[in-house]
Write a structure and sequence with these properties.
- The protein is about 50% helix and about 0% strand.
- The chain contains six helices and no strands.
- Helix 4 runs parallel beside helix 6 and helix 5 packs antiparallel against helix 6.
């Protein structure tokens, strides 16, 4: 079964060979869905790094993860706030489903759109987002997952 590799480079630490980068750029320009996976403006959608990994693997290149390499990623303190991290987790959870589905990796089934809101409400009580910032951030991630699963098309649904 096709799946995302357990260990692969992501985000700021991702490095590509020129040929792989050019190949990816060629592939992504043909798809509006894939072009929308990167962050633009205030949208926190992400997934282009995962899309790059899957694209180069499908084209026959390999990927490597080298934990001995270190990167210092400087970010403003505002990106450590509860609200920012919650929005980021929601957007990442949603786009993760889009990325995998784009590459025909679907370890889950579509859920009917009408069930998204009830699932979010149920998750609200499960995660108890009022308890602490981490619980709120996790609940937002679950909401993003439900939104992504509700947007899937062309496959059987889970009732």
């Amino acid at each position: 079964m096709k799946q995302y590799p357990d260990f692969s480079p992501i985000g700021a630490g991702l490095v590509l060979r020129r040929e792989a980068a050019e190949f990816y750029a060629q592939q992504v320009t043909e798809s509006q869905t894939r072009l929308a996976l990167g962050r633009t403006g205030k949208k926190l959608i992400s997934g282009e790094d995962n899309d790059i990994v899957l694209t180069v693997l499908e084209a026959g290149w390999g990927v490597g993860y080298f934990p001995q390499l270190q990167l210092t990623h400087l970010i403003p303190s505002s990106r450590l706030s509860k609200n920012y991290l919650a929005k980021l987790n929601r957007a990442m959870s949603r786009s993760w489903i889009q990325v995998l589905d784009t590459h025909k990796i679907r370890p889950w089934l579509k859920i009917p759109r009408w069930t998204v809101l009830p699932r979010k409400i149920k998750a609200f009580f499960r995660y108890k987002p009022w308890k602490d910032p981490a619980s709120y951030i996790r609940w937002q991630g679950a909401c993003g997952t439900f939104e992504g699963l509700g947007e899937l098309t062309n496959h059987k649904s889970v009732n």
